[in-house]
Amino acid sequence: MSLTEQGVGRKQPRRFALALLGLLLIPASPVFWALTLDHTLLRQSGLAMWIAMTAGLALAGYAAWGDSRRRTRVTSALTAGWVAFSVPAFFVFTRLPAAEEARDLRRALRMTLPDHEGQPMVVGDLLGEQAVLLHFYRGYW
Amino acid sequence: MTCQAELRGLGAINDELEALGVRVVAVSVDPPTRSAEVVRRGRLPFPILADEEGRMIRAMGLLHKGGGPGGGDIAIPAQVLIGQAGDVLWERVADRIQDRPDPQTTMDDVAGVLRARGE
Prior knowledge:
The complex is a heterodimer of chains A (141) and B (119). Chain A is mostly helical and 141 residues long.
């Protein structure tokens, strides 16, 4: 009996490093996404991030399946838990509020704001001869 | 980050827009010094307005309360085409952070709207 157990113990593959790699892939997955931000479809889908997460999860599963040591199993469980948290979090945290119905366009167009050189500018003054495309963005940070 | 890429994309279609009689003006809550750096790095051919208190953004109904990194108010990513008479001809408001306008789509939409109006 004890011989059999020892035999199984010896043959068991050591996959802790793989489990660790799987765990590291989860926090790294947004980085893969960030690398593809210039590509519209990849940015919107977050495909690179999903692939990295799936790979991390696959490694975790593969490691825990063959290696029943506690540290391997705990690491893989952490990976699975992290993914379970990240997926819904991705959809919650990337959602933006809807624009408000109330809009005072006249006031916005008459407003004086400094441009990037500090020069005062009134968007309404640009109109007349031409149209203006206002581009609102979240800011550089 | 993302914002840089989308501003560069807008810079790339700026000449085409100007040919249609459209001036591009970007707006964010960043101070002028930071926007100047963005313009320099992206070689942007259009101005960036510094709406640090979000006055214009709020007037447009585009304020994302507490959306900034330090819990500050920032703009919801959006593009609004204002016609010569000061009316909104077309607009697109993002509903997800990663939902950013593709420059070519913007170009096609704006050109289509202007063509339909004969401006």
